[in-house]
Amino acid sequence: MASWDASSSAVIYRPSLRRRTPTPLGRSKLLLLVSRSFSDFRIKVPQQFVICRAKAVNDFGATGSRNITTVPSSLLVAEREEAKAVLSLFLRKQGFSYAVAARTINKSDGFIDHLISKLHTIHKSRYLVGRELTTLEIRNALVPYLESLLEEHGDIFIDIVENFPNPPGTIERPPPTLPTASNNVTSKKERALARVIQQSPEGLFQPSVLYLMDLGLDLDRIKGIVRRFPAFAYYNLDKKIKPVVEFLLELGVPRSDISTILHKRPQLCGISLSENLKPTMTYLENFGVDKSQWAKVIYRFPALVTYSRQKLKASVDYLTELGISKENIGKILTRCPHIISYSVDVKLRPTVEYFESIGIDASSLMHRCPQTFGLSIEANLKPVTEFFLERGYSIDEIGTMVSRYGALYTFSLKDNLIPKWDYFLTMVYPRSELVKFPQYFGYSLEKRIKYRWSRVRETGVSLVLNQVLSTSEKEFEKVLERKLGNMLDVPVAEGKETVADLEKSEQ
């Protein structure tokens, strides 16, 4: 909260929100402040303080920063979209939902303009030589500033963002002639879409659109990209899009895959090759990512090479903390690059703690099946554990099953585990057979399990579950023939040979 000390003519802040990631109580309090009407809630903060503190007024040129009108309009629109994306991500990292972040941004046109002004001040030399900023440069310039505002203003941070440059508690409002925030958002998307579909007098689209079409993106997909990320419509063809595409082709990405990569992550074209993308790849290669596999890695998860160094380091440091070697970290990131997108504190650490609580070696599981760590504890992991507990398996047995088959938790209860369990009960095996061979749940019920078991029943031989399912079709038939031949060669007097004896003779 804030109080005004008239004797010292200064604002005294006593923020209750000091950590960057609020506790549930802090988030609730902050959301309450956002939702309250200013008729019920007033914080007396002198207007001149916020203006001086933020060094901004409606005319950015008066503050000594680069005048906004001197920047090309296309670049300005793109930068606004980038700044909004940075602010949205920042709010969501503080624990706010996507809806709350979007609502705040829709009310914060003045603050977005202020962020652009800050950007032009910080990178003034870049603009003087006509060099566009990359996405990471914009992020690295704005995030520390947002963090400092949050640290200083605490509970009234949202109010300051939404009412900038008017401090919370003042009666001033934006001029009524301004369009509403929601209309602004819509009009910006419409302008970006209009730029995409604009045609020359000869009926041709602009060169960047024609280039994207030549790569396999039809107009509808390009429009879909722009709806999700309007800044893409303003990316320069020769300075941004072409260099990235040519670099991907040099890495061995098939030309037919380029359209998919750009559709997944259009922000890739906003990354500087020399200052961001290539250094990021080198950094990951130092942790064992197979450089010969970059084409596949980027196709699977193009966002990997757009993350900040801080984000990458946080994830890699945590994997190292788990005791995973550099070599294995590289293998994990090569096979499952999505692991970098999982928040260490929100996703990875809680999931590791859950697995360790039921006796599963989390580092070993991470190496064998990293995608498991992207699952919800409540919606995916706990229900699977309960499923096996309810069927008589102990925690230790479940741990053994997972250690032998890491993908066990990735299966759907309804579509996989339950129907296969029900069918398993019709087979002659004891339940302990699934502890020995949990891979059973990874085979197709209709195409593999039922067919193979019907063949076993037809021949009347005895096979362990592993032999029934894990061999190739040709080898499976050979095993059946060999077992059947052994049975026919056994004298009648010795016909009571047990399944265990038959298995021992096979060895």
UniProtKB/TrEMBL annotation:
Pfam families: mTERF
Example GO biological process: DNA-templated transcription termination
Gene Ontology molecular function: nucleic acid binding
Keyword Transcription regulation: yes
UniProt KW keywords: Transcription, Transcription regulation, Transcription termination, Transit peptide
InterPro entries per the UniProt record, alphabetical: MTERF (IPR003690), MTERF_sf (IPR038538)
Family in the record: Belongs to the mTERF family.
Protein's recorded name: Transcription termination factor MTERF5, chloroplastic
